[in-house]
# Entry
Amino acid sequence: MWWPLALILPVIRLYVIGVRVLVYQLFHKAFSLPVLPRQNGRVAIVTGGAKGMGYETSRHLASLGTHVVIAGNEEEEGLIAVKKLQKECGHRKVEFMYLDLASLKSVREFVERFKARGLPLHTLINNAGVMLVPERTTEDGFELHFGLNYLGHFLLTNLLLDLLRDSGKSGRCSRIVTVSSATHYGGRLDLNDLQGRSCYCSHGAYSQSKLALVLFTYHLHKQLSSRGDSVTANAVDPGMVDTDLYQNLCSLAQLLQKPVAKLLFRTPAEGASMTIYAAAVSELEGHGGLYLYNGETKISSASSYDKQLQEKLWTRSCALEYLTHQRLVGHVFPKQRGRVKQIRLKS
Ligand SMILES: NC(=O)c1ccc[n+]([C@@H]2O[C@H](COP(=O)([O-])OP(=O)(O)OC[C@H]3O[C@@H](n4cnc5c(N)ncnc54)[C@H](O)[C@@H]3O)[C@@H](O)[C@H]2O)c1
# Structure
């Protein structure tokens, strides 16, 4: 595509989607959570659980009796959140563990430390994310939105799958809830240029990462159900929510965003309600492969249902993780790209 168009189109698509979401929010009340069953004895990991919607998710799950592990890269903020939640929920089963999703090494170390605790795992909330960051790469050299929002969660989920499988049982499945976004409708997944090297646009990169998360969720759920595992995977869309996610907007857009956010954006607690619902409501027991928005199952973008694309993305993600891991442990990797599909991710 002609490069100025490749830069402008994702921006237009993202803003058009944003306006549509805001019009919807103007005429529809925020979804309010039903009374949820107690979650005593269940253990949840919430990525980015120290602030924004992640914090509200942690708060609600902890108030239902869940043992919540906040996984994040801001230690001080995490420990403050833990103190507040322990006080508010009246129990001490809220804790912080360091996880930097922009480092695949950190993801592996987090999983090792978590597994060493001997805890079960019933709920994994893939919530953390960044948006519209100027061109930057993760520790492993991946474009930041793709590497952090998508690839970090891809590895985390895969490394925790055995634990989620062992902790789930028929009638009480373990649940994987992944926070996507309406921006995925405007996302284009270019398998030949996942890192946006030919022409970087932060709007396109964010939308692509959110589309990748939906493709991943559908493929993951299909694999889990075909094996008969007691684990479900769903994607949620929180709407437009007033959080720090918008900190990378340009200054003019920030100036406009603030008053609009006051009027039309959801609060973090309202935004988190879809995630909490997917994590705990009884009606969703055994149901997965869904895209949930404002209390309902919605149709996601046409490309998110493309089975070939789901499979190709999965294979490519395994290859990227594998090659990165080999580099980290000092192996010279052989030229066997065709075999990567069969490689099971191990911690
Ligand atoms: N706010 C919205 O309007 C909106 C809309 C749709 C989807 N979302 C999604 O909701 C999720 C939560 O975002 P939010 O709106 O609460 O924003 P937020 O900025 O308040 O929270 C983002 C969280 O991600 C964590 N995080 C960032 N980089 C990390 C890293 N390298 N390792 C580990 N954690 C990291 C942050 O510490 C923070 O806790 C994101 O995935 C976002 O894409 C938000």
Notes: Residues 332-347 have pLDDT under 50 and may be disordered.
